[in-house]
Specification:
By secondary structure, the chain is an alpha/beta fold. It folds into 2 domains: 2-22 and 256-323 and 360-392, Aspartate Aminotransferase, domain 1 (Alpha-Beta Complex); 28-254, Type I PLP-dependent aspartate aminotransferase-like (Major domain) (Aspartate Aminotransferase, domain 2, 3-Layer(aba) Sandwich). Helices cover 39% and strands 14% of the residues. The chain is globular and about 70 Å long. The two termini are 24 Å apart. Mean pLDDT is 96; it is low at 397-401.
């Protein structure tokens, strides 16, 4: 019943907060054994044996020639841009986490935002081709929601214009799409192992590539530019992954199957409960390949539901369901990029930013919880415009969502 909603004064559905992405844990005993062995060795950083083992494991898991572990994926993108000596404008989607754009700016390259496809929220190859000018320095694709972007089309465009293609694969660990396993696309791909990713190393990232010379350059750059014991050949930085993070990264990749299975079960529960709700689109699983089901993504059509996505987020937060707006409002609308002496015409991006709602999943969430959250979403939709009118008269929530 509408009157029972917490946002209107009723008790919250959940006593404890339900998060979009609480960290997944692998075999705790195995992790602690690795950490104990690390402590016994007293080798905590600087290409320790756990980092080396982890790089080999992640390269094998993604069927690529090699991998370089770094302290986070943002620095992985920065190191890759540095190794490629990128200049000029980097064509990329605005519908991505802000770090994708920031990593290019930090290296002195300028993001040039292009629009996305309404079907899967990935970069639109036609928009990429239309945006190429003499100032274009590279193409940066993003596998949004872990759904592989059209790597083949982007590579064909890159080849035709003699541009490097590289890929932000932060969401896409273990994914296999039409272009094959993630990791081997473009010149390199960068994974995120942040704590909220479904496979994590507490904090970290991995650069994957079949170009071993490029990986050697990145390996040097992550360690201040050292090319030998006391020889520095490049202006590098400190982006090394510590051993304790590699211990978690190894333990997590060993549990990738169970993590993905939990995500898939949760996704199925949401899809069953919400798939037929008018005004709610559940972004479906890709029809080709293997998906990690890391995100459960809805689009809320306010013209049909009578209730905006933002009102729905507020109402769910009141129930202790910490649903999220991703990636709002779009990189091109954040102050650092609005200062550019131009504006971008990105109608699909702007519309998706207004509609997207991401729901909780992961091993900390059970399918029954997903069904309860789905019931709440259905009740909100049933409340429609009258509910929206009631919400418009209440004080703003203090929570920043």
């Amino acid at each position: 019943m509408i009157g029972d909603l917490a946002v209107l004064g009723g008790p919250p559905e959940f006593a404890d907060q339900v998060h979009v992405g609480r960290p997944n844990l692998g075999d705790r005993d195995r992790l602690m054994r690795r950490i104990e062995e690390m402590l016994d060795r007293r080798w905590f950083s600087n290409d320790g044996p756990l980092v080396v083992e982890m790089e080999e494991a992640y390269a094998a898991h993604h069927s690529v020639a090699g991998a370089v572990a770094v302290c986070n994926a943002t620095l992985g993108l920065q190191l890759l841009a540095r190794a490629l000596d990128l200049r000029g404008q980097i064509l990329m989607p605005s519908f991505t986490f802000i770090a994708t754009a920031h990593s290019m700016m930090w290296q002195g390259a300028q993001p040039e935002f292009v629009d996305i496809l309404p079907s899967d929220h990935n970069i639109d190859p036609l928009a990429v081709e239309a945006a190429i000018t003499e100032r274009t320095g590279a193409i940066l694709g993003v596998h949004v929601w872990g759904r592989q972007c059209d790597v083949d089309a982007l590579q064909a465009i890159a080849d035709a214009h003699d541009l490097p293609l590289f890929l932000d694969a932060a969401h896409a660990l273990g994914v296999v799409g039409p272009a094959g396993p993630v990791g081997g696309g473009g010149v390199a791909e960068v994974l995120s192992l942040h704590a909220t990713k479904f496979v994590n190393s507490f904090e970290g990232g991995v650069v994957l590539s079949n170009d071993l010379a490029l990986l050697d350059e990145i390996r040097s750059l992550r360690n201040f530019g050292f090319a030998g014991y006391d020889l520095v050949t490049a202006i590098g930085t400190n982006a090394k992954m510590p051993e304790v993070c590699a211990a978690m990264g190894l333990t997590s990749i060993e549990a990738v199957g169970s993590f993905a299975a939990a995500n898939e079960a949760n996704f199925a529960a949401y899809a069953d409960e919400l798939g037929a709700v008018e005004g709610i689109r559940v972004l479906s699983a890709p029809s080709v390949g293997t998906w990690n089901h890391q995100y459960v993504v809805l689009e809320v059509d306010e013209a049909v539901t009578g209730l905006s996505r933002d009102d729905m987020v507020d109402a769910l937060w009141a129930e202790n369901v910490l649903a999220r707006r991703y990636f709002y409002p779009g990189c091109h609308e954040h102050p650092p990029y609005r200062t550019f002496e131009r504006t971008w015409d990105l109608p699909v991006t702007d519309g998706v930013c207004r509609r997207v709602l991401v729901l909780p999943t992961g091993t900390a969430v059970e399918p029954d919880t997903c069904r309860t959250i789905s019931r709440l979403v259905r009740e909100l939709v049933a409340g429609g415009r009258p509910l929206a009118e009631r919400l418009a008269t209440r004080p703003e929530l203090e929570a920043d969502v």
